[in-house]
Amino acid sequence: MREFRWEDLPQVRAVWDTAGPGIHLDSSDEAEGLRRKWEHDPDLFLVAQADTQIIGVVLAGFDGRRAIVYHLAVLEAWRRRGIGRRLMIELESRLRARGCPKSYLIATPDNQVALAFYRDLGWEVMDMVLMGKRFT
Ligand SMILES: CC(C)(COP(=O)(O)OP(=O)(O)OC[C@H]1O[C@@H](n2cnc3c(N)ncnc32)[C@H](O)[C@@H]1OP(=O)(O)O)[C@@H](O)C(=O)NCCC(=O)NCCS
Question: Is 69 a pocket residue for ligand 1 (Cβ < 6 Å)?
Fold first, then answer.
């Protein structure tokens, strides 16, 4: 497990592109948006690597008060071996070290695997409505 490097981008995209319906990518996940995110929080953009292959990825943003975790995915062939858990534990530990008291993440209600996964790590479903607005 290590921090993302720019040359990982094609493999990271491949992990997301093959992850299934739980990963929702949009225009901010194109190269320019990801570069801006990476430059903002390089320590919160993590990959899991086996030999030369990127097999898992997760990223988070921290604004000084709250964090949001995004785009956790593990290649299907590598699932259920504790890789997702290790990525999250490392990310959470980095957030704590930066003084982050609380984090959110978004999962769709039909993503039962992700919900079971996050519950197992102590995350709780919050009774709220997520709202969004596009500026571009
Ligand atoms: C969610 C995801 C990242 C989990 O990664 P993973 O490496 O397979 O997870 P782990 O092996 O670390 O699992 C840790 C625990 O989570 C739970 N869990 C993981 N997969 C599960 C499944 N398919 N069914 C039920 N519980 C599951 C279990 O409690 C598991 O512990 P155990 O194996 O000791 O029983 C992976 O399934 C994935 O990439 N899914 C597609 C992308 C996605 O939906 N991401 C979430 C976006 S919000």
Answer: no
Domain ranges in the chain are 2-120
Whether the full predicted model's pTM is greater than 0.70, yes or no, is: yes
The fraction of the chain above a pLDDT of 90, given in percent, is 99
Which protein residue has the closest C-alpha to ligand 1 atom 17? 117
User: Which atom, in ligand 1's list, is nearest to the CA of 79?
Assistant: 8
User: What's the rounded Cα separation, in Å, for the pair 129 and 136?
Assistant: 22
d(CA 127, CA 21): 23
DSSP state of 109: T
Low-confidence stretches of the chain (pLDDT < 50) are none
C-alpha span between 27 and 98 (Å, rounded): 28
CATH T-level fold of 2-120: Aminopeptidase (3.40.630)
- Å from CA of 50 to ligand 1 middle: 18
C-alpha of residue 114 to centroid of ligand 1, in Å? 6
| C-alpha 47, offset from chain centre | 9
